[in-house]
Amino acid sequence: MDNQWQFMREDAGTLRDVLAKASLDERPFSAWISAQLAERGLKKNIVVRRSRLNQTFAYQIMAGMRHPSRDKLVQLCFGMRLNEAEASELLERGGASALRPYDRRDVIIAFCLNRHLEISACDDLLWGLDEPTLTKEGGEDRQ
Fold first, then answer.
1. What digits encode the pLDDT tens for the residues 86-127?
2. Which of 15, 55, 87, 110 is the most exposed, having the fewest neighbouring CB atoms within 10 Å of its CB?
3. Is residue 13 part of a domain?
4. What is the rounded CA–CA span in Å between residue 138 and residue 3?
5. Under 8 Å CB-to-CB from 120, ≥6 apart: which residues?
6. CATH number of the domain that 35 lies in?
7. What sign does the CA torsion over 54, 75, 112, 133 have?
8. Does any domain span residue 127?
9. Interval 31-47: pLDDT, tens
10. What range does the domain containing 79 cover?
């Protein structure tokens, strides 16, 4: 994520020069996610199935009609098979904090994302390490 700010470290001169070098993208979440799905050749129904989100809720999130919790956005990241940097961008664009390398639970999630594990495997690891799971099925069925 540090590389995203490289344009600020370069000798740009004026504020106008810095702004000219910045990769500004102020699209709303719904437009950004639609573009990501198209760019990656992903179909919404497959992303929804992989994410284990409620279908209606997932479509509302992608349409920008709902403001989901951070965990629901993380589930969407699993559905899209994003790595930790891509997931962090989705989280921030969705109004949540990026994955944090100093947070134990976030490190586990990033580990799973980078290894393209299914969300159920991530829940198993989270539960086994006494961290809250992403889906209700991950923790509540095991008590």
1. 999 999 999 999 999 999 999 999 999 999 999 999 999 999
2. 15
3. yes
4. 35
5. 52, 135, 137, 138
6. 1.10.260.40
7. negative
8. no
9. 999 999 999 999 999 99
10. 2-99
| More confident site: 143 or 62 | 62
Cα 34 to Cα 17, 45, 59: the distances in Å are: 30, 13, 11
Domain count, the chain: 1
- Determine, yes or no, domain membership for 51: yes
Is 139's pLDDT higher than 50?
no
Residue 72 lies in a domain: yes
- Cα–Cα distance for residue pair 133/50, rounded to 1 Å: 16
SS3 sequence of the chain: CHHHHHHHHCCCCCHHHHHHHCCCCCCCHHHHHHHHHHHHCCCHHHHHHHHCCCHHHHHHHHCCCCCCCHHHHHHHHHHHCCCHHHHHHHHHHCCCCCCCCCCHHHHHHHHHHHCCCCHHHHHHHHHHCCCCCCCHHHHHCCC
Q: Are 108 and 125 in contact (CB under 8 A)?
A: yes
The pLDDT, as a whole number, for residue 84 is 94
CA-wise closest residue to 43 among 32, 52, 56, 34: 34
